[in-house]
Amino acid sequence: MRPTARRIGMITPSSNTVVEPVTGELLGARQDVSVHFTRLRVTSISLDPADTRQFGQDSFVEASRLLGDARVDVVAWNGTSGSWLGPDRDERLCRAMAQAAGTPATTSTLAILTALRTRAVRRLGLLTPYTPDVGAAIAANYAGQGFPVHAARHVGLTTNYDFALVTAAQLDDAFDGLAAAGCDAVAVVCTNVRAAHLAAGWESRTGVLVVDSVAATLWHALALAGDTAPITGYGGLLARPPAAFTQR
Question: How many other CB atoms are there within 10 angstroms of residue 132's CB atom?
Answer without folding.
Answer: 12
